[in-house]
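Reviewer 2 asked us to include a model.

Predict the structure of this chain.
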Amino acid sequence: MSIMKFRMFTFLLFIMLVATCWCAYSKDITVSEVTPTFEFEHSKGQFTDGLSFSSDSKFLVASGDSGKRVEGILVIFDVKSGKLLNSIPGAPSAYDTTCTKDGLKIYRITDDKFLRIHSAPKWNVETSIQIPGKTAVRLFLSPDDTILVTAAYHGILVWEIKTRTSTAVESQGQGVTGLAFSSDGKEFAASYSGSRTVEMYRLGEIKPYRILEGHVGGFLSVRYSPDLKTLATGFSKKLEKDEQATPVMLWDVATGKLLHKCEGPPTHRQSNDFTNDSKYIIGLSNQLEGYPGVVSVWEVKTGKLVYQWKTDKPCVTFALSPDNTSLITCNQDGKLHRWDFETIRKQFDKK
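Predicted model (structure tokens):
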């Protein structure tokens, strides 16, 4: 073979390789057109960090800021129809909200430094507990609803629900942005944006047994996979030109080893969640050029981006139902939309 032919052959081989890689990459980042099932009725307000499902996935609790200085919003929707079931007037603005697995109690961290507990069926405030120190901004319930963890910018409290007493744990982190319990209730983790760390605690111990570091922009979310094998951390960072993002990192819970850096658009706030079979991690982003908002799905086993679909407007948060049939997004204008995640998953799931 002549040198000229060899060079031509090499050049064509290179072009074919580049084309193959580009097609594979393009397939991963193709943003799909998906239509939401419906918009929830009377859904208006800033439900930032305030979406929570009942364990049977039938009801959605939405809490947040009405836009006024003091007044907040606390509403309950039927997930199947999107109809408003209850609205609690005069509720103080909340930083974070969750409900018990039986759907009979709602816990809210309000901006007046109180932990407020609402009880069914009228959802009046059953108990108000003043939280010592600075205003708490995050809370998370244990899977059996017996332990509640609350976090302020500096400091974490572990509450025993039955006695309403709390214990402070030692923390070196700054700027708590997320909390998560393991599915067996034996440990929890806290993410920090200021110190760019994640601290992992065993329940009953006051010192973290492991500290994770790695995100350039600081950790903004943390989630345990249901199978207890993987910890997902997310961050949000405005990208510079040609900068590559790794918005989600996957860690081995048993060893603390970094498993995958998942590439894609930066995720928004603490918007990350696992599917109930631990196969996929979902993130929400408003930083993909040309799109107002994008929901991204990564495969946990490989860390690869497998699917994306766009939202009609930028979103501030989302929630995935425990049965994985519904994904709810909240737009910046306060509108809530339901997406048929069970159908969407069929577009990318590997059987």
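The CA atoms of residues 47 and 64 lie 4 Å apart. DSSP finds two helices and 29 strands in the chain. We have added this to the supplementary material.
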